[in-house]
Amino acid sequence: MDESLFFYAKIFDAKCHMAPRVTTIVMYPRPQPDTICAYFLLKQFGEEQHPGISEAKLEFWNQVRPEKTPAEWEQAGYLLIDLGGGKFDHHRDDHATKSETAATLVAKHLGVSTDPALRKLLTYVKRDDLEGRGIVSKDILDRAFGLSAIIMNLNRDYPAHPDFVVDTVYRIFLAHFHEEYRRKVLIPKEWQELQQQGRAIRLNVATPARPLHVVLVESDSKTLVGFLRAVKSVQADLVVQRQSTGHTNIVTNQNKGIRLDLRPVAEVVRRLEAKRKSLDISGFNHDQLQKPGRLEGLEEWFYDNAANTLQNGGAAAEGITPTRITLPEMQRILEKTLPRATV
Hints:
alpha/beta; 3-stranded parallel β-sheet
């Protein structure tokens, strides 16, 4: 065969086997966490296998209309979620073991079932659908404000507008996915790069009780501190984060059953800050330099006793002057003062 004819024959054959373009996604008119999650996965990750799905409209059917099989509906541009025995209906006989939900079927179909950023979401909807306990806590407030209960309330308030329910919960799932992607993918990658670039220092500071794990890091990430306190390979007791603007915040980990006494740190930091800005603080006594809040003339530093942090601007540093204390100086301050901290 002529090479050009062979080339066009391959294109024709590929088009013949191309998935039909999806124009409409269909689900039952009372959205559940599982079906909304399945819809979310198809919209976010399904475009390659189902062209058009990211822009497809959403319809709600009580049952599949009998003039077509689920496969025929798909050929006509309709993709069914948990309806009529289609491939994403976990009530089908071959899914009768109750080990799958619509969302897990979709995740496996799209090849994202092991994505670390989706692990919690898929676990939640599976537990909610198969075990009927989306929220495990027995606390009455946890249950009242848990997502499963809120979705139920939305369905009751908007019975004629399931599209509103889906859109509302979709945004929640998307925000959760973005945060998990930051925590599971972006932040671990950034942490490795920061260490390789020499922009992260890890210390073990001796105290009478036990060594304290301290991290000093240069980064603008708003998620990094939480990661460093939570990830098993670090589990920092205290993190000092210096932003590119020079703003520097000291954050403790209160989830490890300890409470560090930051008063000595606050006093030494404030004394050095005053020295750097040629501020006379002879009128402040020892207790005043350690007290929570801000001190007049030393507004750069806010000691939050409740959160147990020492903030030079915090998450919103606008209007706060960056500290004049360098990160190496902050390291020396911590090495000097933390051994006196209460653990």
